[in-house]
Amino acid sequence: MREFVKGDFRAIYAYSSDARVTRYLFFGPRDEDSTADYLEGLLASQRERPRTRFELAVEEIESGRVIGACDLSFIEGNVVDLGYMLGIESWGKGYATEIALALVDAAFFDLRADRVISTVDVNNGASIRVLEKIGMRWEAVFRKHRRAKNCWWDCHLFILPREVWESSRVNYAP
Ligand SMILES: CC(C)(COP(=O)(O)OP(=O)(O)OC[C@H]1O[C@@H](n2cnc3c(N)ncnc32)[C@H](O)[C@@H]1OP(=O)(O)O)[C@@H](O)C(=O)NCCC(=O)NCCS
User: Fold this and answer.
1) SS3 label, residue 60
2) In angstroms, what is the span from residue 121 Cα to ligand 1's centroid?
3) Which of 18, 59, 98, 157: CA 20 to 30 A from 165?
């Protein structure tokens, strides 16, 4: 995982213009203009102080290709929201689980978060599974959590309090 740079435009456009990838995301699929706006916004967020949004490129070590994005964002106080998305050719290899585990560690170690949360569409089985695998706990379901793409979205809220992460981390076995 590394910072995005301007030259990542094509790679971002490749996965975020794919309707299969953005199916359970509130935005997209992106066209070239909205990809450019998004990239400009995230590059600007890298310069913010204090920085509240850490949106990172996911680079596959073997190929050196940018295959997706992940993020940690402060939403209030010391609560950090976690997210990830990958191009479809990279699904099913355990990457999101590896990414999410690293993000959780970064949120608690580096950002000193008290709590990590994630909201996920109730039909997004793969993402729900990832959150379960990394030890996040189901907390609630929000009916009509948000209106996007002309419909209401029902979402699960998953959370991981700092104390639980601290006590479970030593014993974690994927
Ligand atoms: C969600 C996403 C990141 C998962 O990436 P991934 O690298 O394939 O995830 P992993 O391989 O680490 O783990 C996926 C798990 O979900 C399971 N799974 C896959 N599809 C599933 C489904 N429809 N229902 C239930 N479980 C499913 C897999 O079997 C695997 O679990 P297992 O290891 O117990 O077998 C990827 O599908 C994606 O980018 N989706 C589009 C963007 C998105 O929805 N992001 C999340 C927003 S909250």
Assistant:
1) coil
2) 12
3) 59
CA 18 to ligand 1 centroid distance, Å: 16
What is the band of 174 on the pLDDT scale with cuts at 50, 70, 90?
Answer: very low
Question: Which residue from 78, 164, 148, 91 is spatially nearest to 125, judged by alpha carbons?
Answer: 91
Residue 105 token pair: 């560690």
Domain 2-169 has CATH 3.40.630.30: yes
Q: Please report the atom of ligand 1 found closest to the CA of residue 121.
A: 48
Domain boundaries, the chain: 2-169
What pTM, to 2 d.p., does this model score? 0.96
The 3-class SS string of 95-135 reads HHHHHHHHHHHHHHHCCCCCEEEEEEECCCHHHHHHHHHCC
List pLDDT tens digits, range 100-132.
Answer: 999 999 999 999 999 999 999 999 999 999 999
Output the residue whose Cα is nearest ligand 1's atom 32.
Answer: 129
Contacts of 29 (CB under 8 A, 6+ apart): 16, 17, 18, 19, 21, 22
